[in-house]
Amino acid sequence: MKYVITESQHRQIIKEMNEETLKKVSTNWFKKQIARGEDPHIDGGLLIFLGIKKYSTAHDRLLRSLREFLGNGIYKAADNRVSKVFNTSDYPEISGGYDFQFKVNIVDRDMNQLLLEVDVLPGGEVDLIMVDGGVRDLSDAMWDDEIGMEVHSEADDVIYKIIEQEITDYTGFTYVVEDINYI
Fold first, then answer.
1. Strands, sheet with 101-109, edge to edge from the N-terminal-most edge strand
2. Could you tell me the pLDDT band of residue 9, with boundaries at 50, 70 and 90?
């Protein structure tokens, strides 16, 4: 006979979840990801299963669990995650009308956090749908007197969200961006 729990029972289990339970569930999740040929990471499925919201204390505990699971390999995982050129077109759910590439460099690290520097590569574009501006060079749009501040802020937000998805969710490290250089 199959035992089925109700949604309210699931919420109660999550509410009562202690550190040991969180660690056991997340460790099993990470092992299954590895068995499927994936790098261990925190994904939406795990968050939903555990009933955890991003930026909560439980999410912080989950990040710590990932760091512990990775152990000494955490620094190698971080180096591997930043070793590529990120292209916003690979993240349509994040990038909106922004199309540019960037590199991330680790400036410093401690046990829980990375200090990062970002270099945005030349040739980026932004589609200014809301102001009927069409597609414009990203750098030109950032220097525009009317929309420059907003374009700059939105491009920064795209970078932060991609870094969180690609680095934090795969390493457990939180991050601080020291500088974003628009080359």
1. 85-87, 101-109, 113-120, 174-182
2. low
